[in-house]
Protein: TIR domain-containing protein
Organism: Adineta steineri
Amino acid sequence: MATAIELSDMVFICMSNPYKQSAYCRSEAEYAYTRQRHIIPLVMEKKYRPDGWLGIICASKMHVDFTKTDYEQALQKLISQIQLYRQRTSINTLSSPTIKDKKNEILTHDNKTSASVKNQENTCNEQTQVEKFERLSSIENSYNDRFIEWWTHEDVLNFLHDKRLDVIRTLFEYEQQFDGHSLYILYKQCQSNTQSTYQVLNTQLNQLHDRTLPYFTYIHFVSELEKQFNPVDIKQYIRYLLWIIYAKIRQKLF
């Protein structure tokens, strides 16, 4: 999470009493504040007012209350704040002299040296941007940071492997279209028809791979999916809400 904050221009803080009580949430919020990231507080608990350490960070900032107004109105307000911040940032960038400009002024007496320094800086900047993009991509590609319905086929396979469900993983290994949404449909079937779904999976596993699906492994599979769809951890719940907001913002801005 520290890396995600370092690579971000702005940070959303989903304010609620459970969020304030979480030591992990506090350390992440304070780190974003220390790194001088642009913080936009989001009110997620009805009539909640930040106090204590959360009040110090968020009290003076403009909040977006998702409990007071219509969801779409709150989302539009959030998008407006993002656009306003981007406009201010772009204006400040254009009006402020860059380090490269200052160096070029100092080195005007030596054009060759100036050109060499500028080329080196451009190369370094390009490498830095590539490294930053790769690091950000690695964060976004972690299935733990996304709600299950946005998982790719590879995410599903990684999840099953991490949960020691390789016997079930073999069923979907070569089914490239089996993504997070497909896993969600399967989970709903497991809920509504536990025994019949088990029989279907066991039969397919036996026919395709000459293996048997232990019933306790099937129960473990359903249990792990239930944890993903019904998070009890406040951080997972907030992550789920943020991904919904993120998806909506991308639809409207891009």
